[in-house]
Each structure stands twice: as C-alpha cells, then as structure tokens.
Amino acid sequence: MELVPPEELPEGHRSGFVAVMGKPNVGKSTLINGYVGQKVAIVSPKPQTTRRRLRGILTLHEAQIIFIDTPGIHEPRHKLGEYMVATAVRAIPDADVVLFMVDVSILPEDEDLQLAGLIRERAARPCILVMNKIDLLSPDEEQEHREAYLGLADCEDWIMFSATEGINREELLGLLIDRLPLGPQLYPPDQITDQSSRFMAAELVREQVLHHLHQEVPHSVAVVVEEFRERRKDLTYIEATVYVAKESQKGIIIGGGGKMLNRIGRAARGEIERLLGTQIYLELWVKVRKRWPRDEAALRQLGFVLPKKG
Ligand SMILES: Nc1nc2c(ncn2[C@@H]2O[C@H](COP(=O)(O)OP(=O)(O)OP(=O)(O)O)[C@@H](O)[C@H]2O)c(=O)[nH]1
Ligand SMILES: [Mg+2]
Predict the structure, then answer these.
(1) Does residue 20 share a domain with residue 147?
(2) How far apart are the CA of 9 and the centre of ligand 2, in A?
(3) Does 136 contact ligand 1 (Cβ within 6 A)?
(4) Residue 122: its pLDDT value, please?
(5) With a 6 A CB cut-off, is 16 part of the ligand 1 pocket?
(6) Can you list the alpha helix ranges (DSSP code H) found in the chain?
C-alpha cells in the first residue's frame, strides 16, 4: 500500500512519535501491541524482555501514531544492559510525546525515580504518566500509590490504565492524538512496524525461550536468523541460531533428547506462522558464545551496536 497523499488526508491530520519509557516489566510492549493490534514486540513476565528500540505503527483516519518501544530503564550489570539503557534514553529527544509508564500495583522504586529525572532533564516535549496494571491494584492502596507516582513524575497529564484489560485505552489514545503535531502519514497505512520479518522471527524464538526457561538462561540468550528463504509461495524456510553465554546453558536449552528445543521450536513456529501468514519450516541450532553479554565485539556481531562513548 502507498502513503495516502497529504491532500487526501482529512484536515487537521496529525502524526508523530510516542516514546514509551519505563522500568523493566511495567507493560510497555503490551501497550504497544494492544494499540497496533498485532504482536510487534515480544512480551514476557520476565524483566528486560525488550532489548532494542522498535516502532509500532497505528494508522487511523485522523492520525498516524508511531510508538517507540524501548528497553526498560535499569542499573546495567553488563555491556548488553548498558546498550539497552543507552538506546532507551536516546528515544527521549526524538519523541513528540513521552509516555512515562509505571506499574501502579506496586510503589515506586529507584528505577522509576531515575527515569523521572531523565525525562525532566531531556524531554522538552509533553509527557503523560501512564499508571499501568490498575487491574492488580486494590482499592485501599489506590490513593497512596497514585499520589506516590504523581509526586515523582513531572508530567502534564496522567491516566490510570490497564494494557491487558484495555482499561482507558480510548482515553489515552485521545490524549496522545491531541499532543501530536499536524503532519502527513510517515508510513504506508498497512505497515505496522519498522522491523524486518527476519528480525521478528528471531524475536519470536527468543520469546519462547523466555516463556519456557527460567533464572538466568533467558537473559543469556540471543537469537540470530541465519537463513530466511521462501521455498514456495506458502512455505518459508527459517534457520536460526540460539546463542547462549555458557556451556551449561546449552544443555538446558536443548533438554533431554532435545525435548526442550523441540518445544521452543514448535511454539515459535506457530507464532511466526501467525505473523507471516505462511507455513514455516523452522530449524534451530544452539551455540555457545562465551560471556557474550559482557563482550563488546560479540555484541556488535549480534547486532547490538553500542553508542559512542561521551
Ligand atoms: N495484570 C496486568 N499485567 C500486565 C499489564 N500490562 C502488562 N502486563 C504483564 O506484565 C508483563 C510484562 O509486560 P511487557 O509488556 O513485556 O513489559 P515491558 O515493560 O515491555 O518489559 P521490558 O521489555 O522487560 O522492559 C507481562 O507478563 C504482561 O502480560 C496490565 O495492565 N495488567
Ligand atoms: Mg518490552
């Protein structure tokens, strides 16, 4: 599909970038998937699921909203963490609106405070405080939690929200559109993300690793698609390597008799088929790349390009 020419858009059409920021696990990616209507960003109950910045695009009659999903702001413990935080922070000045997302079912933590400071320092743009997971908040805690976050964030507006239940979905959308500048479409109306199918396939494999494995293993996994080939119109062949950081993790991922890797592969295949709308043949390999989250050269090879120092 082509961009709708500006003269054919309704008068007052708006477009722009909405950076979704917050500590890990508050529901940033869930919010974006909810608005876009498809899984453009993987989601899991484990913190630090999102590692890179990606765009989720919502095209409406009167506006086009480009959501920027960002890795959760946290205290980094290795080079990968530094990359993630740096990439998130860099989204702030590019945004027309910043959504400062928090988990209102718990009280603020250090990372929320850190992000409040960053937004205050760097954002000349409006920010909206999104208090997510209201479905988990008991009524007797509501006032205390709300006031704690209102005292922390310096935003023009705030809203109680639930990304999974859709609570206040339309209300937040209205607030966002009002704050976007007038402008034409920036992406064709049928495009929902800036990510390639190849990258999305790798992420869907990693999502299943996050869902099937626990403790430190999921955080030590990177997935690279080595081959992505349309064999027939209705069959795509995908070969991917699952990198782990230690020899012992390889055995855990493969599992006895290859059972775990098979389960991960089956689940990922279903998700990729849903995304691409074709049948998939998925082949997975597991390789050890020792201490890759701490190794700058390995990170670069895996596609995490670290920002220049200074
Ligand atoms: N109960 C409830 N759970 C939610 C809500 N929003 C998100 N979640 C859950 O919270 C977990 C984290 O969601 P994500 O969308 O991956 O969070 P994130 O902020 O993108 O996390 P990172 O990518 O790690 O920074 C998942 O298990 C979601 O299903 C909500 O409104 N209510
Ligand atoms: Mg995320």
Answers:
(1) yes
(2) 32
(3) yes
(4) 85
(5) no
(6) 28-36, 79-89, 91-94, 110-122, 139-152, 169-179, 197-212, 247-254, 259-276, 296-301
Residues of the chain below pLDDT 50: 309-310
Q: Is residue 130 part of a domain?
A: yes
Is the shortest distance between the CB of 167 and ligand 1 below 6 Å?
no
Within a domain: 275: yes
Q: Is there a single domain that holds both residue 97 and residue 244? A: no
Domain identity same for 42 and 134: yes
Specify the residue with its C-alpha closest to ligand 1, atom 7. 27
Distant-in-sequence, close-in-space partners of 172: CB < 8 Å, separation ≥ 6: 128, 130, 159, 161
Same domain, 12 and 161: yes
Task: Burial-class residue 7 by CB neighbours within 10 Å (0-12, 13-18, 19+).
Answer: exposed
Token readout for 280 is: 């998939």
- Please report the pLDDT score of residue 86 as a whole number: 94
Could you tell me the distance, in angstroms and rounded to a whole number, from the CA of residue 70 to the centre of ligand 1? 13
Distance from the CA of 9 to the center of ligand 1, in angstroms? 35
| pLDDT the model gives residue 306 | 62
Q: What is the tally of structural domains in the chain?
A: 2
* pLDDT (tens digit per residue) in 244-278: 999 999 999 999 999 999 999 999 999 999 999 99
Residue nearest to atom 8 of ligand 1 (CA): 27
Q: What is the pTM of this model?
A: 0.96
Do 221 and 175 lie in one domain? The reply is no
Q: Which atom belonging to ligand 1 lies closest to the Cα atom of 46? A: 24
Per the domain annotation, does 151 fall within a domain? yes
Residues 151-185 have pLDDT tens digits of 999 999 999 999 999 999 999 999 999 999 999 99
pLDDT at 310: 38
Half-sphere exposure of 90 (CA within 13 A, CB side): 12
CATH number at residue 151: 3.40.50.300
* Interval between CA 45 and ligand 2 midpoint (Å): 10
Same domain, 20 and 67: yes
Query: Domain range for residue 54?
Result: 6-179
In a domain, 74, yes or no: yes
In this structure, which residue's CA is closest to atom 2 in ligand 1? Answer: 133
